Amino acid sequence: MTEVLVLVDHVDGAVKKTTSELLTIARRLGEPSAVFFGTGVEQAKETLAQFGAAKVYVVEDAALGEFLVAPKAEAMAQLVEKTQPAAVLIPSYAEGKEIAGRLSVKLESGLITDAVDVKAGDNGPQTTQSVFAGSFTVTAQVTKGTPIITVKPNSATPEPTDGAAEVEPFAVTISDAAKTARIVDSKPREKTGRPELTEAAIVVSGGRGTGGNFEPVEAFADSLDAAVGASRAAVDSGWYPHSYQVGQTGKTVSPQLYIAAGISGAIQHRAGMQTSKTIVAINKDEEAPIFELVDFGVVGDLHTVLPAATEEVTKRKG
Amino acid sequence: MNIVVCVKYVPDATGDRRFNDADHTVDRVGVDGLLSELDEYAVEEALKIVEASDGSEGEVTVLTVGPEQAADAIRKSLQMGAHKGVHVLDDAIHGSDAAATSLLLAEAIKKVGAESAWDLVICGMASTDGSMSVVPAMLAERLGVAQVTFGSEISVTGDMVSIRRDGDTATETVEASTPLVLSVTDQSNEPRYPSFKGIMAAKKKPVETWSLADLGVPAEQVGLAAAWTKVDASAARPPREAGTIVTDEGDGAARLVEFLAGQKFI
Ligand SMILES: Cc1cc2nc3c(=O)[nH]c(=O)nc-3n(C[C@H](O)[C@H](O)[C@H](O)COP(=O)(O)OP(=O)(O)OC[C@H]3O[C@@H](n4cnc5c(N)ncnc54)[C@H](O)[C@@H]3O)c2cc1C
Ligand SMILES: Nc1ncnc2c1ncn2[C@@H]1O[C@H](COP(=O)(O)O)[C@@H](O)[C@H]1O
After folding, report:
1. Looking at the 3D structure of chain B, how many domains does it have?
2. How far is it, in rounded angstroms, from Cα B250 to Cα B46?
3. Does residue B219 lie within any of the structural domains?
4. Is the pLDDT of residue B30 over 90?
5. Is residue B188 part of a domain?
6. Sorting pLDDT into bands at 50, 70 and 90, what band is A215?
7. For the stretch B56-72, what's the b/e string if a residue is b when 16 or more beta carbons lie within 10 angstroms of its beta carbon?
8. CA geometry: angle A167, A171, A176, nearest 5 deg
């Protein structure tokens, strides 16, 4: 069977859930080989095996961590040349898409970004994407070269299987031209103890309607083991960090349940949450456009509804 | 500093957006369009950089690849304060994918550079229609210069450009020396509104229109037929079924929790 390369998304060997999703998808197209940049593969190996990686190519070149994007794209291109894969799957985070973009130019191969589904087709992978703020669905395929596809989080349910996860170090040659944008400082994001926004099964977001008080939003989120998100209005007001923004210029989330509190539902916000399975809103204004999307809505003040709901959930959970 | 800003003309996100039925390309002609809002941040950043460099010898050239209507995106940028515009316009370009668009932008940037050398190419973080966020990286690859992308805070000292890049797991500081491709996020600045003076001045600013022949790009390398990807189908997402909406009369929270429990979220 032909190989399918899957770029592993990890922090020092702690593998993100998107990787198990991509490995699951890769199995529809061929035999998954994980591509692991950096250190920590010993820790990652178990998860990679569990979701079917037959091989794990490890690239440890220091340039990968010292410079932005370009060395990773070169490493990936060299791996593609060696393995001649049926496809390359890359998680759809900012850097992943940039690696994919450069790879596409290097290999003269077609690139599809932000797939929400990938299936095997007669002429290679068939992708589904959700576009125009989730208002349209398109299906597409790559017609030239090695298909390069970036895949959004939550695009598949990870299915365990047995993979050998045979570790194979891969030596790359990084050109001087790729060593130009130097990462001079890196501060890891502070841990909140809550689930990762893009991976969470439930997300509770607050907007301008919080008036700057996110406590009811956070408390309700915690009662449901949910992640916390925010609208751009809340972020721009300095009430919540930008890394929690949901929407066109923030994160795209696609959880089982999305709860919007004090958020009007502007098109740019919808762009980041419209594909959520179940949508709930709490808003004072019964005319708020967010109500067009909801499965369940409460017209009311979030400052009374959320605390009462938190209490009720906590009581039920015992 | 001489700066080239890549700006895209896109369908208005708050209006009707759709695909052409015949070839599943984005309809840019039959709908209201505008300068992609995220590219306003790129124009603003360029103006700020040029204004901050003493002597203000620098020039800001705005560049677009798009249909006739895309001239609007150039006009708005000139009204904001950019000095001149370049419009790559050719019927053969219709249906180009990101690869072809980046090729055209790269060739146009080289042509701009042949007249007077550029230091920076500045892009938006994403186009508001395609939202791919790949063209800046592709451009850096094609031009063979450093890629300093997703800058949320930008500082320029001499020929060094430094940005704050807020990644998923870390906030990074990235540095490179010019020439380079920079892309900026909507956190980077507050785009200015064109002033009356700016609007009047824009009318006299030079805009050049370049065809494929002017760029020396063969028609076979761009457009729908040359695309490296193919859209097989496009369809409006079926509207969501109308949900249950209750007005809180003291029982809002209870009913909400009831709903969540019924859906097995609790
Ligand atoms: C290029 C571009 C990109 C953008 N990207 C994003 C993005 O990524 N994410 C994003 O979110 N936005 C984005 N926006 C901004 C977007 O257009 C909206 O301005 C923003 O989403 C509004 O946030 P909001 O709903 O919190 O605020 P508002 O629109 O002001 O809505 C606040 C809502 O809270 C309700 N409310 C007030 N008080 C209460 C209360 N006590 N209890 C209950 N409800 C209450 C009000 O009725 C109202 O509906 C972008 C805009 C542009 C132009
Ligand atoms: N047709 C175009 N003309 C000019 N600039 C473009 C065009 N397409 C993309 N860009 C630039 O590339 C950035 C990212 O676009 P994208 O990769 O399509 O999300 C935009 O913000 C623009 O700066």
Report:
1. 1
2. 53
3. yes
4. no
5. yes
6. very high
7. eebbbbbbbbbbeebbe
8. 145
Task: Tell me if B261 is assigned to some domain.
Answer: no
**B108-113 long-range contacts, Cβ below 8 Å, gap at least 24?**
B108/B63, B108/B65, B108/B210, B108/B215, B109/B4, B109/B63, B109/B139, B109/B143, B110/B143, B111/B210, B111/B214, B111/B215, B112/B4, B112/B61, B112/B63, B112/B86
Q: Is A106 on the interface with B (CB under 8 A)?
A: yes
Check if A315 contacts B (Cβ < 8 Å).
no
Cβ-count burial of B197 within 10 angstroms (0-12 exposed, 13-18 middle, 19+ buried)? exposed
The ipTM assigned to this model is 0.95
Q: What is the spatial distance between Cα A222 and Cα A200, in angstroms, rounded to a whole number?
A: 12
Query: Do strands B33-35 and B9-11 pair parallel, antiparallel, or not at all (unpaired)?
Result: antiparallel
Predicted pLDDT of residue A207: 98
Pick from A288, A258, A250, A247: nearest CA to A134: A247
Q: To which H or E segment does residue A33 belong? A: strand A31-37
Q: Locate B199 and state its tokens.
A: 């609007």
Where is average pLDDT lowest: A114-123, A207-216, B49-58, B106-115? B49-58
Percent of chain A at pLDDT exceeding 70: 100
B54 vs B203: which has the higher pLDDT: B203
Please, which pLDDT band fits residue B27 given cuts at 50, 70 and 90? Answer: confident
Q: Is the minimum distance from the CB of A290 to ligand 1 under 6 angstroms? A: no
For the segment B203-232, the average pLDDT, to the nearest whole number, is 96
CA of A274 to the centre of ligand 1 (A): 15
Contact A257 B246 (CB under 8 A): no
Nearest CA to ligand 1 atom 47: A285
Domain of B222, CATH number, reads 3.40.50.620
> Phi-psi region for residue A48, left (φ > 0), alpha (ψ -120 to 50) or beta?
alpha
Arithmetic mean of pLDDT over chain A? 96
pLDDT at A1 over 80: no
- From the list B13, B245, B259, the residue facing A268 with the nearest CB is B13
pLDDT at position B56: 60
Q: Given an 8 Å threshold on Cβ–Cβ distance, is B256 in contact with A296? A: yes
Residue A146 has pLDDT above 70, yes or no: yes
Domain membership flag for residue B249: no
- What average pLDDT score do residues B173-190 get? 98
- Nearest to B155, CA basis, from B45, B81, B55, B54: B45
Domain housing B206: 2-226
